[in-house]
Design a protein that fits this description.
135 residues; 3-stranded antiparallel sheet; 2 helices; 3 strands
Amino acid sequence: MNVQRLAVVGSVVAVIAAVVASLMLLGSPAEQRLLRLDEQRAAELGRLSRAVLSRWDNERRLPDTAGELVDGRALTALPTDPATHAPYEYRITGPRQFEVCATFDRPSRSEPGDFWFHEAAHRCFTFNVTDRPGD
């Protein structure tokens, strides 16, 4: 084997090794897409919960449905899941409590103590109007 051929083979092996290593570290493009969708879900739940808290601050009542929040100010449209396009769950759980829920594809990258931490599952986040976690 001559030197040029050895250099070409070595370069090809190095490129393949770099691609394999990056896929192992970062995950496949499909995996990255699922992580981005989950990040979008958490951000949308944050928007929805802030709109509910804003309604409480202004009117001292929780909206009966998430649809009531679409007023052109707090929300111009009801946030929906980026993959299924279904609306996120919102429900009142007490006189000053509510929860927003979504189904996540992968565990979050955040630490377990973070408010928005979730596993790959259906997850509800509970809010109390006097307590403002997740802001």
